[in-house]
Design goal:
There is one protein chain. α3 (107-113) packs across α4 (120-128). The model has no long low-confidence stretch (mean pLDDT 85). Helices cover 30% and strands 18% of the residues. The chain has a domain at 87-175: Winged helix-like DNA-binding domain superfamily/Winged helix DNA-binding domain (Arc Repressor Mutant, subunit A, Orthogonal Bundle). A hairpin with a 2-residue loop joins β1 (15-21) and β2 (24-31). The protein is built from five helices and six strands, in the order βββααβααβαβ. The strands form two sheets. The protein has a three-stranded antiparallel β-sheet, covered by helices on one side. It has a three-stranded parallel β-sheet with strand order 5-4-6.
């Protein structure tokens, strides 16, 4: 996951605020175009100092994320600002968003889905730069022989927790 650095361009109508979840503090960034960044929870983190007044969409997203960490499956459906990402990254993010909660796909499956067979490593690189984790559920993409990577501060431990949370009562992760 890409950090929040650079997710704000310093213009009017953008900002950030932090909120607490059961796993730790998170921060949401927004621009006029939509949500531009989300930081995943960090144990013991206090979050970022606020900038600006959060729009209703960002406040609703914070509530939905809190519900998500309580085992509910909210829509997490908000406008996203993916400016600064490439067309390839956006195609990877769109494919990742199509993975249902409780399911996983491999980097290779995503590469094939976007018409770039053989680009599994590039898919992993794009997901590692994901500015909006959870909304773009990069944790649902795994390696062909294991979990693969996870560049969030919680690393693979957090990836496992997110997958287990989503699997809930439905049992083990579903593939394909």
């Amino acid at each position: 996951m890409g950090g929040l650095n650079g997710r704000l361009r310093g213009g009017e109508g953008e900002g950030r605020f932090s909120f607490t979840t059961s796993l730790g503090s998170m921060t949401i960034c927004w621009t006029r175009e939509g949500i531009s960044g989300v930081s995943l929870p960090r144990d013991g983190s206090r979050g970022e100092p606020p900038i600006g007044h959060p729009p209703k969409e960002a406040v609703r997203l914070a509530r939905e994320v809190q519900a998500y960490f309580q085992g509910k499956q909210p829509s997490l459906d908000v406008r996203m600002d993916l400016s600064g990402t490439t067309a390839f990254q956006r195609s990877v993010y769109k494919a990742a968003r199509s993975i249902p909660p409780g399911s996983v796909r491999t980097y290779g499956e995503i590469a094939r889905k976007i018409g770039r067979p053989g680009a599994a490593r590039a898919v992993g690189t794009a997901l590692g730069k994901n500015p909006i984790p959870l909304l773009i559920p990069c944790h649902r993409v795994v390696g062909s022989t294991g979990l693969g990577g996870f560049s969030s501060p919680g690393g693979l431990s957090l990836k496992k927790r997110l997958l287990a949370l989503e699997a809930g009562a439905s049992g083990p992760w579903r593939t394909g």
